[in-house]
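User: My collaborator sent over this chain with a note saying "see what the structure looks like." That's all I know about it. Can you take a look?
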Amino acid sequence: MTIKQQPRAASDQAMWESVLALHSFVERRLAHALQRRFGVGLSEYRALEVLTQAEKGEHRMQELADRIGLGQSSVTRLVGRLESAGYAYKDTCADDKRGVYAVITDEGRKHYQDARSTYADTLGSALDAASTDGQLTRAVQALRGAA
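Assistant: Without extra context I'll predict from the sequence alone. Here is the result:
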């Protein structure tokens, strides 16, 4: 028995597959550029970005995990790597000793600021390159048109 998809569902699925392919294409380029030039992975960069933008330069670990799309144990390891590099440290909550915060250091802020232009340039060039790929063109146009 064959399940026949509705035209809209097939169109939505094709667009979603295009978005996922574009995401993968861009993420690979960003990860490579950040690792090569600054020695940080994409998740570490995003954690530094979130912490830099935080009012006090800190977030509870679970909140940081939610903001960058990682699980609790993954963000714990990520913050451990940032701590080893001197870019962040863990601190306990004054009100609730069970609460643990990730706090960005001055060195972490500087490292993030140094990497921002590479991230932006790589993102732009990756989207430009993807826009010439027949399978990704529509997704790039849709994203850029929505901005």
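A starting point for your reply to your collaborator: The beta strands are 58-60, 88-92, 100-104.
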